[in-house]
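Bug #77: duplicate submission created two jobs. Keeping one. Sequence:
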Amino acid sequence: MSKRLCLSLLSAPQRTHHEQTCRLLLQRQQIWNTTTALDSDQTGRLARSSCRSFSSTACQRVGINRMAGRPQQKPQQSITLQQKQAMKKMQASGEHLDHVGLLEGTFVPPTGEKLPSLFSDPRGRWKVVRYQFKSWLGIIQSRLTAFWFVKPRLKLEVGKTPRIAKELYEEMYAAFANGNMAAMQGKVAPGLLRSLNDRIAQRTPNTHLQWKLHKYIGSPECVSYKFAMPEVKGPNTTRTGLMQAVVKIKSQQSLLQVKRQRMRDPATKQQVVAEMPIDRNGKEIQNFDREVEEKKNMKTMVEYFVIERLLIKGQLGSWRAWGTTQEADLAKLLKAENEKHKALMGGESPMG
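Kept job's structure:
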């Protein structure tokens, strides 16, 4: 079959001439696509003048249709322009405030062994006092900013932050221990919510925690408060900003790990879901006494709980949990201050 087809093509001069014409047109089509614009115009004129009688042949119609049906590609935007547009959308929705993190200049004063001694390290102690004074000035600045640049007058609620933090603290830890953060939607910052859900997903199946707060040691205390706005353009009624408070919470609490499993109730003879306390190795605790286990696992915790509140286009949201932070490390603060001073002085050491 193939041999006869080949002989048939060779024995037909008109078909041979037609095949050569198609090949010539295809070669010219390739030249059209690969040469410069000037050469392309010249080649196109040559093709039109020399092959006008074959304008209705099948080969050329296929080439023309392919070029005519080829969609024109839209010019792609640069990466820089795409980033600017994405940032504008985030600023318009207030989403960029979710990525701010802990506001710059937040200072949590060190305590205990981390606090420099007034007698053995008076210079370090003076540094701490200076940072505390700057933190206090930050609260004053926040009040002035809220008073002058936001309408209607913005209530910072500095005095209410310990109570608000206490409520969010208890709700968040109870939901996390139970393994259900759905009820905390809107009460926890997106980053913290993702982190807690990831930790819940890593637990052994059919297990959860029982968290109990036995008592507070002292009252929760606001140790830092800041209010910042990314910009002050536009009318005062459409401001966007972020307020953050760091509340010190000291408490005694315990944590038990529990496994859920199905078992038959001896009284009703029906299948029920029972909670069996287990140890760290996942083994059931024999002769379980809740009071004894709670006392054994009870710990004194000191946490610096961070809460925040968003102001988006003049609309004030509710307080939500951001996470926790730590006491300031004086050595790191001095190192950062030294590097900043060196950058301002053109690389020279402030001590030199």
